[in-house]
Amino acid sequence: MPYGDAMSTRARSQERRAEIVRAALEVIAERGYRGASLAAVAERVGLTQQGLLHYFPTKEALLVAVLRERDRWDAVPAGQWRPDLLASLVEYNAMRPAIVQTFSALLGESVTEGHPAREYFTERYTEVRAAMAEALRAVYGERLPSGLTPERAAPLMVAVLDGLQYQWLLDPESVDMPGAFRDFLSLLGE
Amino acid sequence: MPYGDAMSTRARSQERRAEIVRAALEVIAERGYRGASLAAVAERVGLTQQGLLHYFPTKEALLVAVLRERDRWDAVPAGQWRPDLLASLVEYNAMRPAIVQTFSALLGESVTEGHPAREYFTERYTEVRAAMAEALRAVYGERLPSGLTPERAAPLMVAVLDGLQYQWLLDPESVDMPGAFRDFLSLLGE
DNA sequence: ATTATCTATAGATCTATAGATAATGC
DNA sequence: ATTATCTATAGATCTATAGATAATGC
Description:
2 copies of one chain form a homodimer.
Chain A: H1 9-35, H2 38-44, H3 49-52, H4 59-73, H5 83-93, H6 97-110, H7 118-140, H8 150-170, H9 177-189
Chain A binds a DNA duplex through residues 8-9, 12-13, 16, 37-39, 47-51, 53-55, 57-59.
């Protein structure tokens, strides 16, 4: 391939897929997964709905790609979580409502029957609680200052993160998500 | 109206509406609001979809009735909340996954654009945070033992309640929702 | 008269399949 | 040859409207 040449077909194809996944993220944020139509995603990347199905053969395949993409954002591996990094993550999220909204909408839908993301979230939360417990253990040992074990504090930490996101998405003016999360950290740690 | 007579038409009609609302609750728990079809609700009460529309002229009118019904369950007025009563409420909820699931699914959907329950949840959370702050103030005064003001503890309390529900709905075996909530109360209160 | 319920149906969608056509890369 | 994309379309839904029919209550 000569210098300055266009991308290879494979690279072009991968970029197209990435574009489609980004568009799907947006449409899911706006309408949820069940409400997101392939046509709406396709339109955003200048394809017909049938053209999109060339890249992802079913709507569910596209959702799987969206969830994989989500996993890639966890730039910090779970084994390296620390409370101060989590606080930064919350601040970062507070600048990215679209992404928070995509996953809050998906989490909400996932508790309904037969939802294709249900298993993903169930497994992810098991992992996230375990990683959170390890992160707390690394900082505090077997007991937090409040007396809780890392295993019992972990689901509370996760609950606060998710619960604050819903309150903040519904009413960003009234809810200081990063501030509330720092309050919770000080509660745990004192 | 003679003794032992059947109900009045009006009473019969109200009972039919209540039946429909209950059925809608179930279908929304299973499929969310966008995924819930009027036909599925109608079938559950032995009506055709068009027959159902005699009682609720649009799908949105049915949702409004569902949300009103939800408000009626808050048997304990917000002005009388106390931490120990909240703990009982969580235990009660842990025995009613269907109801928890209906509102967790609706909350998740409500953050998407143009969702007909969005305004309802936005306003409700404003009220719930205020009521929670008052409940905490009544017990602890201007500062909780942890040093937080009631206004800053309130959104955390609400977040823990909602966040735990999602974790519990996804994996009831692994998440002790009432136990975790009590842990959080002891964190706040000590 | 009013209420409850039905059949028929319009008009929008939605996902997915089939198969054509054009462009790209060995 | 393979890849990208399109048109055509099947087959399922969905909500809502129109209008008929039967039952109930003044």
